[in-house]
Amino acid sequence: MRGKLLFLGGLAAGFVLGSRAGREKYEEIRANAQKFWEHPTVQEAAGVAQAQANKLYTEGKDKLQSSKLGEKLGTTSTTGTDSTDELLAPTDSLSGTKGPGSTY
């Protein structure tokens, strides 16, 4: 899957860099991508994926802390705001905004 994404990314980059309309075509592709990303269905799916990732992360962290390895490593549970209990949402490179569900 990763290889396919890299291949498609390479094709897109090659198209943009090699086309005579270069900048205009790039702006058109970027506008379409931004419109797609801002669609409510896409935002909802991204929010669900983020919630599932947070849940899996928390469950894994709890399992590690309660395991012998976690005890051996001396991991402790923190409840402050400095904790990494919630995954950080990536920055949307198209619009310069934070991802869905971000609170910062």
UniProtKB/TrEMBL annotation:
Residue spans of biased composition, Polar residues class: 92-104
Q: Where is this region: Disordered?
A: 67-104
Q: List the biased-composition ranges (Low complexity).
A: 72-88
What is the protein name for this chain? YtxH domain-containing protein
Q: What organism does this protein naturally occur in?
A: Actinoplanes palleronii
